[in-house]
Amino acid sequence: MTDYQASYYEKRGQKLVKSLLDRGFDACYCENKAAALEKALSLIPQGSLVSWGGATSAQEIGLMDAVRAGNYRVLDRDTAKDQEQKLDGMRQALLCDVFLTGANALSLDGQMVNIDGTGNRVAAMCYGPGTVLVIAGMNKVCDSLEEAVTRARTVAAPINAQRFPGKTPCRAAGACGDCKSPDCICNQILITRRCRPAGRIKFILVGENLGF
Ligand code: SF4
């Protein structure tokens, strides 16, 4: 990252932190992955039950590895023996202490957009876990809510679809076809515009490109 890119991200990051605080979220800006990891771990109490969903950015800063190695109780659906156990883990994650996740897009005025196929991630954002910790690179930040929705639908979702074997137009063509396919991964679109109770959702904005 060049100095002028870092300066651009830092200025937008500070503006977004203020917008998020105005809406009842907790928020801070970290200039790089290492600082973000340190900050994230400071927000997770020892002994907490920790889980996650849709958290590529958290993975990229090393947070999952640190949590697995630390003094936490971890609910990791990826270690499930079969689909039934995986689904059960996803339900149990809705009552964890700290849920780690990411954002498909953010608007500079402090709103978050997320798309979900199964719904477990957006469900956890809305209600359940005591704390939701969102790790987001500044590449996710758009100037307006409209642009954030467009980013989530036409950039984040088609890239995410490449991870799955389903037959969707975006997987074949690399662009959203606004499908109603049985394999569609865009079944829920959540806009989180305020935080209640205040401080339940905490953002760590990172001055680097993370996730997709
Ligand atoms: S084509 Fe379907 S699955 Fe793919 S991004 Fe569009 S709505 Fe989502």
Describe the structure.
The protein is an alpha/beta fold and 212 residues long. Helix content is 38%, strand content 21%. It has a single domain, classed as Rossmann fold, CATH 3.40.50.10420. It has helices at residues 3-22, 33-42, 56-60, 63-69, 83-92, 120-126, 145-161, 169-173; strands spanning 26-30, 49-52, 73-75, 98-101, 105-107, 112-116, 131-137, 141-142, 188-192, 201-206. It has a six-stranded parallel sheet, sandwiched between helices. Strands 8-5-6-9 form a four-stranded mixed sheet, sandwiched between helices. The protein starts with a helix and ends in a 6-residue tail after the last strand. It binds iron/sulfur cluster. Residues 157-158, 161, 168-170, 176-179, 181, 184-186 line the site of iron/sulfur cluster.
Cofactors and ligands: iron/sulfur cluster
Shape: globular
CATH architecture: 3-Layer(aba) Sandwich
- Within CATH, the superfamily carries the name NagB/RpiA/CoA transferase-like
Structural class: alpha/beta
Taking pLDDT < 50 over at least 5 consecutive residues as the criterion, the unreliable ranges are none
Distance between the termini: 17 Å
Strand content range: 15-25%
CATH topology-level name: Rossmann fold
